[in-house]
Amino acid sequence: MSDRTSARAGQAPPVSGPDQLRNVVLIGCSGVGKTTLAESLALAAGMIGRAGQVTEGTTVSDFEPIETKQQHSVHLAVLPLPWNGAKINLLDTPGHPDFAAELRAGLHVADAAVFVVSATDPVTEPTRLLWHECAEAGIPRAIAVAKLDVARAGFEDILTACHDAFGLGPDTLRPVYAPVLRDGVPCGSVDLLTGRTYGEATESDAAAPSVAAARESLIEAVSGQDDTLLERFLSGEPIDAAMLEEGIRREVHDCALHPALAVTDAGLGAAELLDLVVTSFPDPTHRRGPASGDPDSPLAAQVVRIASDPYVGRISLVRVFAGTLRPDMHVHVSGPGRSTATTDTESDERITTLTSPFGKQQRPVREALAGDLVCVPRLSGARIGDTLGDGEHDALESWPVPEPLLPVPIEPHSKADDDKLTQALARLCAEDPAVRLEQNPDTHQLVLWCTGEAHADAVLDQLRSRYAVHVDTVPYQVALQETFGSASSGHGRLVKQSGGHGQYAICDLQVEPLPTGSGVEFCEHVVGGAVPRHFIPSVEKGVRAQLSKGVATGHPLVDVRITLVDGKAHSVDSSDAAFQTAAAMALKDAAEHASIRLLEPVAAVSVLVPDEYQGAVLSDLSGRRGRVLGSELGDEGMTRLRAEVPEIELARYPIELRALSRGTAEFARTHLRHELVPAAVADRVSGNGRPG
To answer: Mind listing the pLDDT tens digit for each residue in 516-545?
Structure first.
């Protein structure tokens, strides 16, 4: 069982080699009980004396204020657990789709995964997609069935549903522990290989016909992949548990077998799952990829996530893939997007101390071997995904981060908040790669791009609680433009000659609309020197200044040819400023005699959607004035739709697409061009670029 002596100290024991390590990520939708399971595992391992409750905000892994308030995980949390001479780095990940970046980080550094499914709703579509993603990456997987005590379906029925939903082959999903129920409620389990009982299960439960049949079925499935075991099984010879455990370990490593068991919120199944992880899951030396897992090889480590501590400052969670990380080492920091030719994009850092995380606690450690996870404080030059090494090897490949597509414009609440906002946002973006900060040059809005409403709430909460910066959210504006709908001419006259130095400038302009996307052309056809040559640049300057302000709705004016055709000057009172003003007046006068049209930005949109939701998504795109250009087959059961959609219709599209497809569709967008706003729509497009 677990090392209770070390557990009382609140820290997993040090390991002597990577073979003693297990890195396991918990995967499942929000609300299935991942954090509760993590709490049960920590209790079973002796790391805590009492299991906390999500509803009370007392769990080890959900320690951030936003997590205790919203009662769901927001960040990746690491719980090192000692068990049977091994150290299990348990990675608790958020189940909400808005925090998929944290899940991706957990998947990247884990060597195996436990899918937690609820007996009340066994397999949601996002869970199915994640399962196939893990399958493509060759990540060994097990299934923990939660909430069996509140569901009407039996354990075998849940496994059948998982088998069908994941498209598994025969004998690939097998229970390794049979749950024992009393009055329909799980009270223990039986190890199908050894007959060992857990909880309130008894020897009579282990000898029950249903358990014996399940054991025989499991042994048959394992033996079928090994000639020696198969020969013994067919001849009726006894097969000892050690041989069967080795067979299961081999099958799990090869993703040919996915063991399953039942867990409850009361902690039943926790010890069984820890046993399964240690005996059947791979250690870091079995990891596929460029890193060797050898503690004696050159260092190759990667920054997984960055957090801030009010006393320590920046803390980087690091996975060591090869070599050994020790205090006082000097490491070279490199990563995607960093140039190897310039020193300002790479850096050398000195490792001061190393700590082992356990929720919000940090305990000093002497070193981190290949395969281990450790925290490094004050690693100021590193970003998430960066590699720590000796500078002689290529940077480790990073993991995909969901593109933030939900705009959240913000304004500082006060002058004091304004003074602190820039630094707070810089730290926030360093900690969360799923946040993108934009200072829009057209609308002058400061926009936080997030992955969804829950993500936006978490980001704003962190600004308030962690950095004491208060901001107000404001409506999102898109960058509309104006253009002339017809040719026109304008007259600008500035004559002020009473008292002192006067101002005198007269300009006559002709304005012609150009095709969309043509930009602005300035010409002059002045004859007879009506406007002196040295004032013509002043006219152009005044015209362009007014173009940037617009002439009707306050949006920039584009796609026009403006020609200076006539004017007058005064030998004394004319000036650069006077002709700039007169030119602006002439342009506004021309606008009063022409129709002014609005232009809106249009985006190229790509939507990957399951076939069953394709009709709903197509109908929704049409309702957004989208032009569907075509479709193509994606992965099995998926279709990629391509369309052009006005950007003003996409402000809340990430939220609404998720609702339409039950969280299964994803989309990307890129700015394409500006187009004329249809006359029937112009009335509901307000002057500030917000949907009407």
So the answer is: 889 999 999 998 889 999 999 999 999 999
Note the pLDDT of residue 582.
Answer: 97
Is-contact 123 166, C-beta < 8 A? Answer: yes
308 class by beta-carbon count within 10 Å (0-12 exposed, 13-18 middle, 19+ buried): middle
Mapped onto helix, strand or coil, the DSSP state of residue 261 is strand
Do residues 251 and 225 make contact, with C-beta atoms less than 8 angstroms apart?
A: yes
* Average pLDDT value for residue range 598-602: 94
Query: DSSP for 166-233?
Result: HTPPTTSEEESEEEEEETTEEEEEEETTT--EEET--HHHHTSHHHHHHHHHHHHHHHTT-HHHHHHH
Structure tokens given for 641: 């739709």
For the chain, helix (H) and strand (E) counts, in that order, are: 18, 31
What does the pLDDT average to over 345-372? 89
What six digits make up the tokens of 360?
A: 């919000």
Q: Letter for the amino acid at 129?
A: L
Buried b (16+ CB within 10 A) or exposed e, 105-144: bbbbbbbbbbbbbbbeebbbbbbbbbbeebeeeebbbbbb
Helix, strand, coil % over all residues of the chain, rounded to 5:
30, 30, 40
Distances (CA, A) of 113 to 31, 108, 130, 135, 583: 18, 11, 11, 11, 68
Neighbours of 234 (CB within 10 A): 10
- What whole-number distance in Å separates Cα of residue 190 and Cα of residue 201? 7
**How many other C-beta atoms lie within 10 A of the C-beta of residue 236?**
6
CA dihedral 280, 254, 250, 159 (to 10 degrees): 60
| 3-class SS of residue 341 | coil
Could you tell me the pLDDT band of residue 344, with boundaries at 50, 70 and 90? very low
Residues in contact with 427: Cβ distance below 8 Å, sequence separation at least 6, in sequence order = 308, 314, 467
Query: Rounded mean pLDDT of the chain?
Result: 89
Where does the pLDDT of residue 337 fall: very low under 50, low under 70, confident under 90, or very high at 90 and above? low
CA of 91: how far to CAs of 25, 106, 151, in Å? 5, 6, 27
Distance CA 320, CA 622 (A): 49
Whether residue 220 has pLDDT greater than 90: no
> Could you give the percent of the chain with pLDDT greater than 70?
93
556, 443 Cβ separation under 8 angstroms: no
- Contact, 81 vs 274, CB < 8 A? yes
Phi, psi of 44 (to 5 degrees): -65, -35
Ramachandran bin of 644, using left for φ above 0, alpha for ψ from -120 to 50, beta for the remaining angles? beta
Q: What is the DSSP letter of 96?
A: S
Grouping H, G, I as helix, E, B as strand and the rest as coil, residue 291 is coil
Nearest to 458 by CA among 384, 404, 413, 418: 404
pLDDT, tens digit (0-9, with 9 covering 90-100), for 21-58: 999 999 999 889 999 999 999 999 999 999 989 888 89
pLDDT digits (tens, 9 = 90+) for 654-689: 999 999 998 889 999 999 999 999 888 877 775 555
Looking at the DSSP bridge assignments, the partners of residue 118 are 121, 146
Closest CA to 108 of 309, 311, 375, 301: 301
Q: In this structure, are residues 391 and 343 in contact, taking their beta carbons and an 8 Å threshold?
A: no
- Is 385 exposed, middle or buried, given 0-12, 13-18 or 19+ CB atoms closer than 10 A? buried
Q: Which of 491, 487, 485, 582 has its CA nearest to residue 543? A: 582
This prediction's pTM: 0.87
